[in-house]
Design a protein that fits this description.
Blueprint: H1 2-9, H2 13-36, H3 41-65, H4 72-109
Helix pairs in contact: 1-2, 2-3, 3-4
Length: 111
């Protein structure tokens, strides 16, 4: 896969390897929070959103740094990835706000 990434995307294979390790780590964290954590979900979602935003910043920095080497497919892939992750961040923050709102309503209703 690493050699394929360099061939088709134009970015060195080790960069794609480290980005994929980071992405899978974030996905593992997200899955762990979803399946195993019931407390402080709002905080953990916000942490995940920040980490995903940092991942997007890193990806954009890599695109800028390697732009002269990137193929058109590589540019399209990385821009698409950033757009998908930004949508995910917006969803994570929306859910965190909803959890906050629901929690505030419950506290206001309880005597």
């Amino acid at each position: 896969m690493v050699g394929v990434a360099e061939k088709y995307f134009g970015v060195p294979g080790f960069v794609v390897y480290y980005l994929s390790v980071l992405a899978f780590s974030l996905a593992f964290y997200s899955g762990s929070v979803y399946f195993f954590v019931k407390r402080k979900l709002k905080l953990l979602l916000k942490i995940l959103a920040v980490c995903n935003l940092l991942y997007c910043c890193l990806t954009v920095a890599i695109v800028v740094y390697f732009f002269h080497k990137l193929s058109a497919i590589g540019v399209i892939y990385f821009i698409s990835e950033v757009l998908v992750v930004i949508c995910l961040v917006m969803l994570e923050l929306k859910i965190a706000r909803k959890l906050q709102s629901d929690q505030e309503k419950l506290q206001a209703e309880s005597p």
